[in-house]
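Hi Y.,

Following your request, here is the sequence exactly as I used it, all 636 residues.
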Amino acid sequence: MSLVFLRVWLLLAPVAAFYLPGVAPHEYLDNEKVEIKVNKLSSTKTQLPYDYYSLPFCRPAEVVNKMENLGEVLHGSVIKNSAYDISMGKIEFRVLCKRTLEPAEATLLHTRIRQDYRVHMIMDNLPAATKMIRELPDGQTIVMYDRGYPLGFVGSAERQGSVPGGAYLHNHLRFVLKYHKDAAFDGARIVGFEVEPLSVKHKYKGAWSDDASQLQLLTLPVGPDLPPLRVDPKGSAAEREVVYTYDVKWEPSDVKWASRWDLYLYMGDDQIHWFSIINSLAIVLLLTGIVAMIMMRTLRRDVSRYNSPEDKDDLAEESGWKLVHADVFRPPQQPILLSASLGTGMQLLAMAVVSIGCAMLGFLSPANRGGLLTATLLTFMLMGVPAGYCASHTYKALKGTEWKLVTVLTATLYPGAIAATLFVLNFFIWGQQSSGAIPFGTMVVLLLMWFGVSVPLVFAGAFFGFKAKLKDPPCRTNEIPRQVPEQAWYMVGAFNVLMGGILPFGAIFIELFFIMTSVWLQRFYYVFGFLALVLLILIITCAEMAIVLCYFQLCNENYLWQWRSFLNTGSAGLFLFGYSFVYFSSTLEIMGFVSTMLYFSYMFICSLLFGVTTGTIGFVASWWFVLQIYGAVKVD
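Below is the corresponding structure, written out as tokens. Let me know if you'd prefer a different format.
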């Protein structure tokens, strides 16, 4: 088994660092205009994005909205043009504008700085980044990029010229633009967009003039040794005056255009991901050994004993999984809810496999902002066919007759509950005037996708599922159900169910940390080769764990395995939700009621969907196992 996984990794591991850029490179000629677009403001402390121009920045003569895809809108991106005027290869210093802040504007700016907001910009489809130098355990240093630049900083004793607790604005930006030239093309390609923010209390001689030739700034050259600009809402008009400036520095680079995203996508030490894979493989190998022992030794001995004519008299007083053969295929309670849950779980699993597969092969480039979220939503809608087929076929096997109801519930139960929850949360986001609130037009588009694409495909899948021929069960079901004997404490529902979710959650625990860091700390995540392996290990772990627990349950003469098999591995969602509390207290610094509510609401939705997916895997594996073992024994 380990050799198989090693071969799979050798095929997939190089993919983790490979991507298709998705856009054609642009060669800039000397003095050609290079446009800077402004994006949103974001903070890991509030998780509420805002429009760049919601703060008192300098505006161009006409603000123009750029087109955003569905994923960008859902992320809260608001891409617009800016007042920055930059030309290829031209090194210069410029004054952008002067603004005297109103007390309300100063208060808002002061609040956003204390909330640790970062400003996001885009140049040539590259996000602005601040450079960080990280020292590795072996003493080597590497360069990493952090998206955006801090809006400002809070004063401290370590900050020269600052008052502890005061809010200071980064009003001067130094753009360090890196370009690559090659004999194969004319001009230069932009391969780096670094921003070095500075806070400077600009002073000038005489009266202010918008004409740069008439303006005499006394704070040149701009550097970190100059007094910083404090934002004080209670200060005088002169103290609330802000002069925005920037300078441009061009640097040649050996980095080729196809590799310009590497610093953004660097995920830290790969050994941690290796440890995650090895940890998950250890769990899989343990479960595989247990399942192999059950299938190859215990089951083979049981089947041969049950089928032996000499031992039939001895078996009359014994217990075992054969004694419930006349009840094991009895339909469970609430078969419609179970079938609808399985359909949604199959839809989510198919979506995950297709989305991660496309990302692993490089079709979802980080240069295509919002592409992963857009592709995931579209894939979920298109996976309505397997959802309908799985739900209807399962419901038919459970001897259900209300096929219309189970199809409608499959298409609407979980999506409808989540849509209603997100709709309510959207009101709270609107109340904060955040750009993260979903616009009404986008809601209409999502509803059209749901009812125009997903629902019809679920009905199409359900049609084929009901038409598909079922194999006869290996055992007939008695009319009178058998009484389930009293179970040992460790086989009681709640304890047994919780035990079933530990190992599936443990298989993804380490990789889950990186995913949550990407989502809540707004980092790039692009090691989809590792993620694909983790998904494969998760599927195997859920299947094997479900089979082991199902076997123990049947050996205790408890034939109510259908819901139990779904909940056993589905309880991994409970562990995920529990881990969200640990992550919240140990890693995040979220402030405010709305932000906290959003975090736990989103994590509850993710945990629910994760639990439905893992539960579906467990049910399918248990069903296959039950058919195999009861098909192998001779029943009178």
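The longest helix spans residues 593-631.

Thanks again,
Q.
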